[in-house]
Amino acid sequence: MARGDWDPENLPDLSGRTYLITGSNAGLGYFSAEQLVGAGAHVVMTGRSPNRLAAARAAVTRRVVDAGASGSVETLLLDTSNLGSVRAAAATVKGRGKLDGLLLNAGIVHPPKERETSLDGNELVFATNVLGHFALAGALLLTLAAGRGRMVWLGSMSTSLGAQDPVDPQLHENYTGWRAYVQSKVATTALGFEADRRLRDAGVPVRSIIAHPGYSVSGRTRGVVGVNEPSRLARFTDNLQAALTQSKERGAWPLVRALADPEVEGGDFLGPRFVTRGEPRKGTASKITRDPEIAARLWGVCEDAAGVQWPFLKATKTRR
Ligand SMILES: NC(=O)c1ccc[n+]([C@@H]2O[C@H](COP(=O)([O-])OP(=O)(O)OC[C@H]3O[C@@H](n4cnc5c(N)ncnc54)[C@H](OP(=O)(O)O)[C@@H]3O)[C@@H](O)[C@H]2O)c1
């Protein structure tokens, strides 16, 4: 997969494809939706707030569909911190047929200072960033297999900054917001690789891919009413870091490439060319996230905490 083979500003025709994005009312999820719809895809925009979702849907319609794109959008409530909400949303999507791609994007990026728990009793950052996505991808595995689709997990370069083996993924001890965030990203990346291994072993026609957006900030991203309205101060401070950062539109590029580039394979890791910014290309994930023992252990933790086993056997038998 060479760098020059993909132009993020001229995507292939995605007409007839359907993608679901978690956390798509803002940030990378929103701009991924814009790009996919712009290329003709149908996007199921999901989020936890009806009002924020409605604003995001209106923005995509105004900025992309009304501008002539053949793609389309619908919205669906999905709170990734809440396993009941994940089950309900998955049931709705399953009833509608095949899915070409699932972007597991939603995330708490500014975790609470003190440890908090979700409605299900799981540590909130782990529940939101990891468990909800593990449960969603498992629940939609047959739907993805029907479309020979892909799931894309959100990694982060923070996992290269001295991340440790997450032996206590729910941080019952020694919680800090930073530790919770980095552990959650170690987990999503490791689970992405583990899913790839398990899908291949079982012969399921679904690719599991990991993508990260570098360092993408709101203050360097165009304003979109109801979606991206950074303060003047945020614009000022984010622009001070211009050499290291990029917009969320560009941050969405590796995510969209992971979903749509036919050359991308299961187990690939995509990110910006210059780590924090740049065109999307294949890279190498941090060592800890590539450790199969850590990944297998996290898989078991997720199965127990989410009460979900992925239906590999049934998915193997699924044919379009
Ligand atoms: N930006 C970066 O530089 C960067 C770097 C590495 C990785 N990432 C990853 O990229 C993903 C998106 O980050 P971002 O920069 O776009 O952040 P963002 O602008 O803060 O957007 C986060 C999105 O996730 C949603 N979300 C949060 N909690 C949720 C929940 N319980 N259920 C459903 N949706 C929820 C938010 O919805 P609400 O509006 O309802 O809160 C929002 O739509 C995250 O997984 C993050 O870890 C980002």
UniProtKB/TrEMBL annotation:
Key words of the record: Membrane, Oxidoreductase, Transmembrane, Transmembrane helix
Keyword Transmembrane helix in record: yes
Q: Name one GO molecular function term.
A: glucose 1-dehydrogenase (NADP+) activity
User: Can you say what this protein is called?
Assistant: Glucose 1-dehydrogenase
Its source organism is: Microbacterium lemovicicum
Q: Is-annotated flag, keyword Transcription regulation? A: no
Q: Could you list the residue ranges that cross the membrane?
A: 124-147
Q: What is its EC number?
A: 1.1.1.119
| Family statement | Belongs to the short-chain dehydrogenases/reductases (SDR) family.
